[in-house]
Amino acid sequence: MTLWLAAAALAALSGILYLSWQSRCPQMLTLSVPLPDLPAALDGLRIAHLSDLHSNCFGPRQERLLAQVRTAAPDLIVFTGDLVDERVRSLEGCLALMQGLVQIAPTYYVQGNHEQRLEPGQLAVLLEKLQKAGVRCLDNEALSLTARDGTEWLLCGAAPVSCRTARNTDSHAQAMEGNLRTLAQSLPSGDGFRLLLSHHPLCCASMARDGYDLVLCGHTHGGQCRLPILGPLTLPGASDRAYVKGLYSVGKTTLYVSSGLGNSHLPLRTFNRVSWTLLTLRRPPQSNT
Questions:
Q1: Beta strand residue intervals within 51-179, DSSP E
Q2: Which of 4, 166, 209, 239 is the most exposed place for a label (fewest CB within 10 A)?
Q3: Which has the closest alpha carbon to 260: 269, 251, 252?
Q4: Is residue 233 one of the residues assigned to a domain?
C-alpha cells in the first residue's frame, strides 16, 4: 500500500510540474513563411509575433521572455491582443513586457477582447502608457513602412470588437466584417505587400478578399488544452474551429494563428506549451522552367 501511495504521489507531482511547465516556461517557435508576392526587399524579414499574454508573468519584469526575444534579434515585433486579463487589476507586468520589447525592435500592437472588457478609464491608462513607451497601437488603420531599398508596404491593424455589443460568434463576426470593410476603404490602391494584425482569426475570407498577403492572429490559445489526435478540447468564445493554431492558406492569403503566452478561465495547458513565434518571410524559389 505504501508503494502505491508513493507512486500516486509521484504521478500527481509530475502532473503538477508538467502543467506548470506548459504555462510558465515560454518557448520560441521558428517558422519560415513563403509568400509568392513578397517584395525582394522584404525577403528575410524577421517578425516576432507575440499574443495573448493574459497578464502572465515570466520572471521579474518579464525578463525570461524578453531575453528570448532579444536573442532572436527580430526586425520588428507585433502583439496581437489580450495583453491583459480582465480579472487581473495590475498592469505592471504587461507594461514591463511592452517597455522591454520596444528596446529590442519597433513594436506594434492591436487590442483583443480582454482589453475591451477593461473599465474605460483603465483601458485609457493602458493605451496612454503603451504609447508613451513607444508602442505603436493600431486601431483600424494602416501604416506605410519603407523597406531598405525604398519599397513601401503596409502594416495594418484591425479594430477590436466590443464585447459589450457582440455577445456570440455570429454577432462578433458581423462586427468584425464591419471593421474590416472600414479598414479596407482606407487602404491605398495598388498591389503592394499588405500585412494585417487581427486579434481574432474570424472572417478570414474577407481578409483574403481585401488583399492581405499575411495575417497574424491570436485569441484561440491553440485550444489551450489539447490531446493527441483529438486536438483542442475547448476554445474561447467567438472562435472558428477551422483556424486554431499554426499556418493556413485562405485563398491567396497566408494566415498564422499564435497559441499565445497566457491562459484564460482555466489556469492550465496540456500538450500546448505557451509560446511566441519568430517568423521569417521568404520569397519562394524561382522556377527554371
A1: 76-80, 107-110, 136-137, 141-146, 152-157
A2: 4
A3: 269
A4: yes
Instruction: For cell 531599398, name the residue.
Output: 149
Residue 95 neighbours by CB under 8 Å, 6+ apart = 126, 129, 130, 133
- Residue 257 to residue 263: CA distance in whole angstroms: 16
Instruction: Give CA–CA dist 216/281, Å, rounded.
Output: 13
What whole-number distance in Å separates Cα of residue 271 and Cα of residue 175?
33
Cell of 152: 513601401
CB contact at 8 A, 28 and 209: no
pTM: 0.93
When divided into structural domains, the chain yields a total of 1
* Structural domain range at position 150: 2-282
CATH (domain of 225): 3.60.21.10
Residue 288 lies in a domain: no
* Span 190-223, pLDDT tens digits: 778 999 999 999 999 999 999 999 999 999 999 9
Taking the C-alpha atoms of residue 32 and residue 50, their distance in angstroms, rounded to an integer, is: 16
Written as nine digits, the cell of 2 is 505504501
Q: Is the dihedral of CA 107, 58, 26, 223 positive or negative?
A: negative
User: Side by side, which strands form the sheet with 107-110?
Assistant: 27-34, 275-282, 46-50, 76-80, 107-110, 136-137
pLDDT, tens only, 218-275: 999 999 888 888 888 888 888 888 999 999 999 999 999 999 999 987 778 888 999 9
Distance of CA 146 to the CA centre of its chain: 23
